[in-house]
Amino acid sequence: MSDFFALISRMRYISRWGLMRSSIPENVQEHSHMVAVLAHALGLIRREVFGEDCDVGTLVCASLYHDAPEILTGDMPTPIKYHSAEITEAYREVEHVAADKLVNMLPVELQGEFWPLISGEVGDGLAPMLKCADRLSAYIKCVEERKAGNLEFVSAERQTLERIKSMKLREADYFLEKFMPAFEKNLDELGTMSEEDAK
């Protein structure tokens, strides 16, 4: 008997943005879903737009599980996590231990497949894409908070966008150009229901 998936289902109980006053609460499960959606988009952009090989399936699966260790560690606020190199490295070690504990809950036959997904060790080709999807999710959250009138996220929005651009990923630039402007629209502007449809 394994506790693995019962614990995975508890990601929805872990709140994000602990130090921020949020208008729209977000939990780790919701975040992981959005990261997977964005990683899927980035992977397809790499493969279909830029013609480069990309294991989109692995990228999406890693996105779904990338924050799974937080089931055991909780979500550490970014200003603390990256306060110093020593703290960042210590937290990485804690995450590694938590990932190891989760993977060891699985039957031996499945552990090899799950380890790279939960540890984030998906290889140099996919790791930046995974990190970019994670940052894009945070950026979208900041945009949505600002749109809701919450100025608490204005600095985080600017800093997160700078981090995304500093990665110099063509896929991220493409996403920012083609898809991010729509996040500034309201529901009517998104074209979900035209006047013709209403007749």
Characterise this structure.
The protein has helices at residues 4-8, 28-49, 56-65, 70-73, 78-81, 85-103, 108-119, 127-147, 154-166, 170-178, 195-198. It has a single domain (4-182), classed as Orthogonal Bundle (Hypothetical protein af1432). Helix 2 (28-49) runs antiparallel to helix 3, helix 6 packs antiparallel against helix 7 and helix 8 (127-147) runs antiparallel to helix 9 (154-166). The chain is built from eleven helices and no strands. Helix content is 62%, strand content 0%. The chain is globular, with a radius of gyration of 18 Å. The chain has 199 residues and is mainly α.
Summary tags:
199 residues, mainly alpha, 11 helices, Hypothetical protein af1432
